[in-house]
Write a structure and sequence with these properties.
Chain A is of the alpha+beta class and 125 residues long. Helix content of chain A is 30%, strand content 48%. The two termini of chain A are 31 Å apart. The model of chain A has no long low-confidence stretch (mean pLDDT 88). Chain B is of the alpha+beta class. The model of chain B has no long low-confidence stretch (mean pLDDT 85). Classes of the chains: A alpha+beta (125), B alpha+beta (171). The interface between A and B is medium-sized, with 35 and 32 residues.
């Protein structure tokens, strides 16, 4: 009983670690590629999020390490009070194990570079 | 009679050996269970550390790209200006206050950040938020560093300033 319970807990903590790494991978891909602000000369600005892009993101399913994941993304930023863009993406299925990752980024909005936070919630599809 | 005594002796010895074997097996099972329970959180802790390392990189890049409003200059560039130039665009006091506000917003809960810009041994610009003092060597630290290029108006020569962001746990 003791060993079986310990093994089950070990498996579940390994799955959580995998989910955490997958959420980090999805977040990195968003911040460095899919949501990146591209200026008029066509130069991409990594770590700078274009405020218009999260809502036009069409696909919220990614394959990481052979596993399929779905995610939801929101952008939070301060403009007098905290403003939120989103959440965009499917809703989290009930009782599904998920990983929520909040990381800093810069939001390009109306020719301003604002400090912001990207919130990515990922789960197994 | 001799045969009876011998059989009894063997039976008793076997009984002690059986009890010992069962006890050792029980101890082994308990030991394995304890070891599994002790090390089962290791992958999760490692994943959390990887996530914090990523967060330190993103905080650094945010300070390198987001502007200190109303000035059109990034936080790290403005700090490098303050370190190198005699007349920087963003006043030091205003920059520190703005950077503290931004760090307050973007830092993960329970963590502090140390921002250090260094031109040479004696020329450094430093900010720690919240003001908890410098991280000790025993604190787990997540460090990301890079360089900021500044051009002096007098000779138009680029100067590279080393910038480092250290994220550490304060509780």
């Amino acid at each position: 009983m003791l060993i079986v319970s310990a093994y089950q807990q070990y498996r579940s903590s390994s799955e959580m670690a995998l989910l955490s790494d997958s959420a980090s991978s999805i977040a990195t891909h968003l911040a460095l590629d899919e949501l990146v602000y591209i200026d008029v000369s066509g130069t991409p600005h990594p770590y700078v999020i274009d405020a218009a892009k999260p809502q036009s993101l069409g696909n919220f399913r990614r394959t990481v390490g052979g596993d399929n994941f779905e995610f939801q993304v929101s952008v939070l930023y301060m403009h007098e009070n905290e403003c939120v863009l989103g959440p965009y993406g499917p809703t989290l299925p009930e009782e599904e194990m998920n990983c929520t990752l909040i990381f800093a980024a810069t939001l390009f909005d109306n020719n301003r570079y604002l400090p912001a936070k990207i919130k990515v919630m990922a789960w197994h599809a | 009679m001799t045969c009876y005594i011998y059989n009894k002796f063997v039976r008793e010895r076997r009984g002690v050996a059986d009890v010992l074997a069962v006890a050792i097996m029980f101890l082994l099972v308990v030991l394995i269970g304890v070891l599994l329970h002790t090390f089962m959180l290791t992958p999760l802790r490692s994943a959390a550390d990887r996530q914090l390392q990523l967060k330190s990189e993103y905080i650094y890049e945010t300070l390198a790209t987001a502007w200190v409003e109303p000035y059109s200059k990034s936080y790290l560039k403005a700090a490098a200006d303050n370190l190198v130039l005699s007349n920087p665009t963003v006043p030091d006091e205003y920059l520190r206050s703005a950077m503290e506000n931004t760090l307050d917003y973007i830092l993960p809960q329970g963590y502090a950040a140390e921002v250090t810009l260094r031109l040479c041994e004696n020329m450094t610009w430093e900010l720690i938020y919240p003001e908890v003092g410098q991280p000790t060597s025993t604190d787990k630290q997540f460090i990301h560093s890079g360089s900021i290029s500044i051009i002096r108006a007098e000779n138009r020569q680029p100067i590279l300033v080393q910038a480092t962001l250290t994220l550490f746990w304060v509780g």
